[in-house]
Amino acid sequence: MRPIPPRMSGDLERGNGGKSAVRLPGGIITPTVTPLRDGELDGEGIAELLEFLRRSGAVAAFPAGSLGLFHLLSLSEHKRLISEFASRLPSGMVLLPGVHRGNLEDTVDVARHARDVGAAAVVAVPPFYYELGQEEIADYYLELASAADVPVIIYNIPQMARNRIDPETAASVLSRTPMLAGVKDSSRDLAALQGYISALPGIPVYEGQDDLLLAARALGASGGVCGTSNFVDLPQRVWSAGAGDAPALQGRLSRLMRLLSRYEFPSAYYYLFQAIVMGRRNPTGYMPRPMRPLDGRSAEALLSDFRSVVSG
């Protein structure tokens, strides 16, 4: 492996008063599906998805996350996907791509690429597969931000990454670099979410589970990273609704999440994007190998049930 180059100018180990170098928007961020057609990256699909997000009020696009199936992308595919989103990004929308790879060197490479094509910040899970200590996790984020010279959003998803990021660890990173841009918490632990909000005043903290969106709003979260916003505007409606309407809208969003959970993740999300946004009732090659698309009967049942849920 080539060594990671030394820190850029600006010495990110200095204290910074607990302030971030970048301000991210509040509201709904979409962790995008990776649009495919016949097994190949679909530029038309990316353009249609971004236009749908613009119309529905998403504030940012987050390609190459868990829903984007980053772990199935080659290094070159990963960078190309980010470039495709960057080149089609609507005015006023922020690009927050996932840059996580299996090693720090490749993660830095993807993060630099994202920076160069215009990302406002990058999203990264901690090193995965083996369990690490909190100091090792903090060092990882400091090294990534320094070597890539780009603001970083910490992505806490211990059920997938195997490593949990404590709120105190995030606060330690922030005290040592201005390049911590925010936190996405997908742990399903509202106490952890509240811990991040308390430990990181002034730093945006986003809820990563659609069915906890309203609860997160009540706790003071800055927004939600909602997979269902790939094909429906329910998350945006929950987030912006008044106190009288929000609970019923959240109930509908939670019913949608229960519907999606009947299918192997994330095939239902990918099919509904194809059917609702692209207008393709019988799409082909929309799941990357080795994942299989929904069979025809399951797809028809999903679409029918989806329409019943969103119509109330």
How are the secondary structure elements laid out?
Layout: E1 27-31, E2 36-37, E3 40-41, H1 43-56, E4 60-62, H2 75-88, E5 94-95, H3 104-116, E6 122-124, H4 134-148, E7 152-156, H5 158-161, H6 167-176, E8 180-185, H7 190-199, E9 205-207, H8 213-219, E10 223-225, H9 234-240, H10 246-260, H11 267-277, H12 296-310
Descriptive account of the structure:
It is a single chain. With 312 residues, this protein is α/β, with parallel strands linked by helices. It has a domain of 218 residues: Aldolase class I (TIM Barrel). The protein has twelve helices and ten strands. An eight-stranded parallel beta sheet has the order 5-4-1-10-9-8-7-6. The protein has a two-stranded antiparallel ribbon with strand order 2-3. The protein is globular.
Task: Give a short synopsis of this structure.
With 312 residues, the chain is α/β, with parallel strands linked by helices. Helices cover 43% and strands 11% of the residues.
- Secondary structure class reads alpha/beta
Spans of at least 5 consecutive residues whose pLDDT stays below 50 are: 1-15
Estimate the global geometry from the Cα principal axes. globular
By CATH, the architecture of the domain at 27-244 is named Alpha-Beta Barrel
Largest sheet: 8 strands, parallel
Element-by-element helix/strand order: EEEHEHEHEHEHHEHEHEHHHH
Please tally the β strands and state the result. Answer: 10
Distance separating the two termini: 55 Å
In the CATH hierarchy, what is the class of the domain at 27-244? Alpha Beta
Q: Residue share in helices?
A: 40-55%
Q: In angstroms, what is the radius of gyration?
A: 19 Å
